[in-house]
Amino acid sequence: MTATPTLLDTALMLAAHGIPPLPLRVGKLPFGNCPDCADNACGGRPNMKTPGPCACPGVCHAWAAATTDPHVLASPAWASAWGRAAAVAYHPGGAGLTVVDLDNPAAVDWAHAALPPTQTVTTTRGEHWVYRGAMQSVNGVRDGVDIKSTMSYARWLGPGTGTMTALPDAVRMLAVDKPSPVRPAPPAATVPALAGGGQCRHRTPAYLERGIAMAVQRIIAAREAVHATVYRTFLAVLSTHGRCGCLTEAHITRLFTAAQTKGESARHCTDAWTNARTTLGL
Prior knowledge:
Elements: H1 7-16, E1 21-25, E2 29-30, H2 70-73, H3 76-84, E3 87-90, E4 97-102, H4 105-114, E5 119-122, E6 127-132, E7 138-142, E8 145-148, E9 154-155, H5 169-172, H6 205-220, H7 226-241, H8 249-261, H9 266-280
Antiparallel strand pairs: 1-2, 1-3, 3-9, 4-6, 4-8, 5-6, 7-8
Helix pairs in contact: 6-7, 6-8, 7-9
């Protein structure tokens, strides 16, 4: 008869697959900080501001304690926590994943209607939808819906069912908390059309849609030089689509919203768009 895996066994299995685990105490809560870090005595530590591991030897700083190092997980410094743990959690962002936590049946119904299918894990009150790709974590993006990715943790409840798919724009856009009113430059409909009556020279809406989706992804994936990336992306979109009249205000809003998820202001978006138009003589 096969012995039931311990919580540490589960954690080591996750670590071997590149998923950084951590123990949870009763109530699905992380263990408290070590004495040196209690009551924020450490000043928050630099690793609490970026998605990275904790530097303390024991289980400390919640999600930042998660690690894929089996020697750390099985170390004497962690032994007491595993002995008192009630469950195993993991840091989704550390594994390049995003969990859409659906906390009630209504939220699950919404996800089936609004989000592309992916790997699904049943929880005590709803479901976790797990996507490939990391993003910022935000709680309460809708009633009963939390996003758990970087600087967050999710309870490990098994591998679930279905095939994991890439993180879609529809989930990334949920992280825009009451975005500032987007005031784009004059809509593309006012851009002088090329000879040919203003008809889109690209013939099919699929070409435009693919281009906008790629531009949104390029902005969201930027890890540095965000200002420059936004400008270059706007320039690329306008150089391809700016003269034929196929861009709509909805397309521009998608681009601006993606930039705002990376910390850009509405004013910077407008300035970058206007500068790109000016560069191209539009």
